[in-house]
Amino acid sequence: MLGLGCFVDNEYLDLYCSLINDNRATKREKFKTQSHHIIPKCCFSCLKLPIDDSSENKVNLLYSKHILAHYYLCLCSDSTNKQLKYKLENSFLHLVSGDANNKKRIENYEVDEFEQFQEIYEEWKSLNSSLKLGKSSWNKGLTKSTDARVAKYSKPRNFSKEHNKNLSKAIKEYFKTHVAPAKGRKLSDEAKRKLSEAHKGKYYMPKDPEAHSKKMSENSKRYWETHPERIKALIEYNKSRVISEETRRKIALGQKRQEVVMIDDDGNVIHNFISIKDAARYFNITNCAVSWRIKKRKEIEPGRYLAFKQDTDVRK
Q1: DSSP 261
Q2: Is the pTM of this model over 0.90?
């Protein structure tokens, strides 16, 4: 191992070699052992060499011993080879917690901790196996040639930098001249009629606007209660935000307000509102609910309806 230049001669390398030699004769046991590469696979990838998958480079280890082996490897690896050290640490953290993003440093682990993982591993493997009983494998029934072909194309493909550059260039050139098939296309009257018929009767608003509004309000309240720091950040942002008079004028011109009135069954005006938003604020409902009631002529109160003031012909 020292000849590869990936490891340093220290006490952890000696402990690793002793662990491997003690388990040379260990046989594979279901739900207990795992196969371990004596010279890690990541070592070959860092040196750009083919991985040695021979039986001479493999040993069966109990799960707790497998963790211990990777622990020793991390502590005897060459610290100047950052790529190798990163990969070894990821392998170790994945075995310990199932998460390579675990923030706990390797130096903070104790060797005595690893024994507890053996029982957990055996219980998990046994449970996982029982859940799969009676379920067939995804590749069951495939011929050997088909199975090999699927496996071949399932492997990630590593394109060269030159290939990726050419691919990016080709895509950019394509979209420079590509025109969407429907762009500039004029529809016939028959096509327009069919499109109109297809969309008739479709309802794109909530069936119960008030219930929908209440649910959205509860969700929003729950969100802000769990993220108080975002409220503070938003308040600070609004304090520092300055809107010029020109911007305010443009906003005012862009808003096309429609006056809303509340009428009775006879069409008599009961109340005037300067906008949909004003009516929504008055009845404590959403703008969407106001628009829906105007469109569907739904009662806002017993015998009371909402309508746009500009609609002089209000049907009962």
Answers
A1: E
A2: no
